[in-house]
Amino acid sequence: MLKVVDETKKAFLTGNETIAWAALAAGADIMFGYPITPQNEVMHYWTRLAPKYGRGFLQTEDEISAGFTVCGAVQAGKKAFTATAGPGNVLMQEPFGMAEAMRLPLFAIIQQRGGPSSGTVIYSQQEVTLTTFGGNGEGYRVVYSSATHQEIYDYTIKGFNVAWKYRWPTFLLGDGYQAKMREPLEMYNPEEKGIELEPAYPLLGLPGKIGEDREPQHLCNIYSLEEELYDVVMNLSADYERVAPELIEWQEHSCEDADIIILTHGVVSRAADDAVKALRAQGIKAGYFRPITLRPYPTQQLREAIAKSGAKKLLIAESSYGQFERLTKQEIYGETIKIEHLYMPGVGIIDHDIINKVKSVL
Amino acid sequence: MAINRALELKSQGRQVTLVDLDTVEPFYTLRPLKELLEQMGLTVIGLTPTNSFGLGETGAMLVPAARWALRREGDIILDVGYGVYGAQTLNLVEGADTSTELRVIAVINYSRPMTSTKGRIIEYVKELGRVDALVANTHLGDETTPEVIEKGTQVILECAEELGIPVDYIAVDRKLADKWSPDFGVPVKWITRYMPAAVW
Predict the structure, then answer these.
(1) Number of folded domains that form chain A
(2) Percent of chain A with pLDDT strictly greater than 90
(3) Which domain holds residue A313?
């Protein structure tokens, strides 16, 4: 196979371009997609690159079809993926739910845009609820929220591996800013970093006679008995809860003696990191905590950060109107720390926004 | 690059119009900078945040005046988007295919993966169609070093020779001007990076 990265070195890319290269490096076989801002350039770059590396692309008639063709391709043993945003993310929840039910290892990139409804193409963090809990019923998925282009590259490679290793639909949650802006990152071939790529494997058409050579492969998303559904949900839950500790990722610093912990995710974490450093320089004891996996959420780790710091306040900053706060509150139910928030739906948050908010609540 | 060239010409007392034709990555357009650039004496054909407010997805469309930009007096700089689809935007401009004064300049950054080897640069330039000159602009944003520029520029110069087209100049971030004196046998222009201000 043609080497994807000629030489490990720093390169200057948009976030969308980064995803296309990382998907190549991760060994993706085929992308199914339907155009939508701000993920279009994932498709643009993939369609330019894929033929050179013997990979495939199909533009489907809509996002529902894109999601289901991914579901079909992974069952046939292909490492398939898609990318979408906004109303496309809404439409894809049906195939994503099917992937949850059938334990299909698909990988999807969500570049968040503003809502409600369909015509807003600008930056936001308003797809947290949809991406983490968008399926109908009670399904399970893994959601990484990236903050830098290096993370986009790293977690795209990791996302494919996690999906195929654990068989949960896996998501990279970016946003319009990360999609469009350019910044340097190190591109590499995963194998050269000691990262072993999980192989794709067929789920249908397996060799051997059912009942004699092998057990039947149950890939099902229709349950006609209440007791059957009960068993399925309980088994899915138990499987997910068993592996969740292996999947949880977070970043934390300066929490040990913090009076206030700043909680952010995704690109806003860059502002929080700068804000904590600036506040510390001014003698204000601020701490930084950031879930990298929004699902499974680093619940225990956040509870421990709160406990060890003795912080009186938790400031949640997000470019949405409370989606991240609601997710956090359900995870740390029972904590008595006072929660403050900075909601800036659709607007980028910079360090000064957080610094000013901290000073107004301390 | 287009902004720097426009301001350079303006500083020579010339009449300059800068046209935003970037439909490839419209979030990276001149929109947030338009008023600033007009205060600096340029005529800018493009949308502002104010007059695209409420347009939603159509806010990324071109302003009609862009189509007729080449019929204006003075120097006209058309800022088109990246890649082959960016170059095709010239199809929207009246006279672009017949003008004898138009020069198409491809700005090449060796740190971009699509142009990260000699072979890829040559393939990329050929894909663009008509290209009259190159500008060598290898950089890594805030992480640019002289070594990064030197390596990239050398490759770009070799490509230009093979393609038989000139390198007009080498564009280098002004922040490096005090630390480094490049000598490539091609003019160096020290540029100011304006686009980071266009996002946040």
Answers:
(1) 2
(2) 94
(3) 250-361
Same domain, residue pair B95 and B163: no
The residue from B55, B75, B102 where one domain ends is: B102
- The alpha-carbon gap from A17 to the nearest alpha carbon of chain B, in Å, equals 9
What value of ipTM does the predicted structure carry?
A: 0.85
Chain B residues within 8 Å of chain A (Cβ atoms)? 24-25, 27-28, 56-57, 60, 85, 109, 111-114, 116-117, 139-143, 148, 199-200
Task: Say yes or no to pLDDT of A212 above 80.
Answer: yes
What is the rounded average pLDDT of the residues A105-130? Answer: 93
Which backbone phi and psi does A167 adopt, to 5 degrees?
60, 50
Beta bridge partners of A293: A144
Same domain, B33 and B122: no
Q: Is the dihedral of CA A164, A169, A170, A172 positive or negative?
A: positive
Q: How far apart are CA A41 and CA A19, in angstroms?
A: 9
Q: Which of B102, B120, B139 is the last residue of a domain?
A: B102
Write down the pTM of the prediction: 0.93
Which residues of B are less than 8 Å from A117 in CB distance?
none
Confidence class for position B200, pLDDT limits 50, 70, 90: very low
In the predicted structure, residue A86 carries a pLDDT above the cut 90: yes
Do B54 and B87 fall within a single domain?
Answer: yes
Residue B153: predicted pLDDT = 97
Q: Of B25, B112, B139, which has the smallest distance from its Cβ to A41's Cβ?
A: B25
Spell out the alpha helix ranges (H) of A10-135.
Answer: 15-25, 40-49, 63-75, 86-102, 128-133
Domain holding A69: CATH number?
Answer: 3.40.50.970
Domain limits at B115? 103-192
What pLDDT score does B59 carry? 57
Side-chain half-sphere exposure of A29, counting CA atoms within 13 A = 14
Give the residue from A181, A183, A344, A347 with the most B CB atoms within 10 Å of its CB, the best one to mutate.
Answer: A181
Per the domain annotation, does B7 fall within a domain? Answer: yes
